[in-house]
Design brief:
The chain is α/β, with parallel strands linked by helices. It folds into two domains: 21-97 and 399-437, Urease, subunit C, domain 1; 98-391, TIM Barrel (Alpha-Beta Barrel). Helix content is 33%, strand content 21%. The protein contains 15 helices and 17 strands. The radius of gyration is 22 Å and the shape is globular.
């Protein structure tokens, strides 16, 4: 698993008293991209404990070199180093940065241009352009409070790994990223090709249909920078068998990583669980029996609970009744997963555009389905922080405001434990101890 990148820049060089907002913004804007985060104390008027589902009043978070050194009651400046700066969030609710565990930063499906068909998108948009789209999306996601994301492919010829590298090196702002590289699939992937132009599905997908091709695809993906392996199990009539998926899993494990399995059908999910995958992506039609099998095997569900609009905009079908039925299947599977105690995390799978909206604002619409499924605000927050951290193998690094963990911190005016609509008003964002956004600007 890739280690978190170092802190990307310095900020807040002025000691006590607390800096005014405009001064903070100015320091952030002029900070050199490669500098190291300086010491900082955050005064948190309301510190949200996402693990316990409670709020602590008037706390301080001491940050050293991008890492949390201390958490405790506000001491009014006593005991702070002379060079410390103070970020006064006494009127804000403060919590760990958010995770989105199923993203496609370098895929933008636009019905005006491609008819809503991402096969057409992959033909029209080359990898360099898509990587630039990824830069814009990543910056927007970070500004909205998503400090860690998992990009699960569909980025052309490794556009996702290029974006991850640029963020890690401080060339562009964005969340900490884990990437899948090219998605591996049986011939055709998620496309339907014609014999004269069968090569058009690559490099969007890496076709692997024999044991040798499976091993080669895993190794080549990892060689070119993938952090984990993403496979499509069941989008063709022929689906990956348990033995084929197990070969993916074994090869990934030898390299110290895991397999993420796109499964739309119950049969596909059964095969993936039996083979030992780490995550099931989507899985709208998993029965309680299959969910229990996932629970017993310790498999995480990355549900991507689509809204009706998301399904209609992201896919080419126009049968509204079928779309609504599929939406209800997603919500019902989430409801049942929660009731059965299956491990699940927040993943959006947002790829479409909408006038007046951004990638991040559309991402927050997925929470409507969590509310519809009866998931409490506290459990929603855990799905977007601690649980996502556990799934991504980042325990001890990111996902909590805790001593020794990275200073990925967000703040907002109202309490997200009461209503997670509060997250849509996040106006302060720190990543690795660097202030990226504060109330009034970026």
């Amino acid at each position: 698993m890739q280690k978190p990148p170092p802190a990307l820049t310095s900020f807040l060089a002025t000691p006590f008293p607390a800096l005014p907002v405009l001064a903070i913004i100015a320091l952030v804007l002029i900070a050199p991209p490669g500098a190291t985060a300086q010491n900082l104390t955050v005064r948190a008027g309301h510190l949200v404990d996402v693990e316990g589902g409670s709020v602590l009043r008037d706390q301080e978070i001491v940050v050293r070199d991008g890492v949390i050194e201390r958490i405790g009651p506000w001491r009014g400046g006593v005991g702070h180093a002379p060079e410390d700066s103070v970020l006064d969030l006494s009127d804000r609710y403060v919590m760990p940065g958010l995770f989105d565990t199923h993203t496609h930063m370098s895929l933008v499906v636009d019905r005006k241009k491609d008819g809503g068909n991402f096969f057409v998108t992959s033909l029209l948009d080359n990898t360099p352009y898509r990587a630039i789209q990824g830069v814009a999306n990543a910056r927007d996601m970070l500004a909205a409070g998503f400090t860690t994301i998992r990009d699960v492919g569909n980025s052309g010829n490794y556009g996702d790994t290029a974006l991850k590298t640029a963020i890690a090196e401080g060339l562009v702002p964005g969340p900490t990223m884990h990437t899948a590289g090219r998605i591996i699939a049986p011939f055709g992937g998620q496309f339907f090709l014609q014999p004269e132009k069968k090569s058009l599905g690559e490099p969007e997908y890496f076709y692997a249909d024999t044991p040798g091709e499976i091993v080669k695809a895993v190794r080549e993906n990892l060689h070119f920078g993938a952090d984990f392996i993403k496979i499509v199990v069941d989008d063709q009539r022929y689906i990956y068998s348990v033995d084929e998926i197990r070969l993916f899993v074994e090869e990934a494990r030898r390299a110290g990583t895991y397999v993420s399995a796109h499964c739309w059908t119950e049969e596909g999910a059964r095969n993936a669980i039996a083979a030992g995958v780490h995550t099931i992506e989507h899985g709208p039609y998993m029965s309680n029996e299959v969910l229990e099998a996932a629970k017993a095997a310790g498999v995480w569900i990355v549900g991507t609970e689509f809204t009706v609009e998301g399904l209609s905009q992201s896919f080419t079908g126009d049968d509204l009744s079928a779309i609504e039925a599929e939406h209800e299947a997603f919500v019902d599977r989430l409801r049942r997963s929660h009731a059965l105690g299956v491990r699940y995390v927040f993943g959006s799978d947002i790829v479409y555009t909408k006038e007046g909206e951004t990638r991040s604002s559309l991402t927050f619409t997925i929470l409507e389905n969590f509310r519809k499924a009866g998931i409490s605000p506290a459990d929603q927050l855990r799905a977007m922080t601690l649980n996502a951290s556990l799934m991504m193998g980042l325990e001890g690094e990111r996902g909590l405001i805790k001593k020794g963990w990275a200073a990925d911190i967000v703040a907002m005016p109202s309490n997200p434990l009461v209503d997670t609509h509060a997250l849509e008003a996040i106006d302060v964002v720190l990543k690795n101890g660097r202030l990226f956004r504060t109330a009034g600007g970026i």
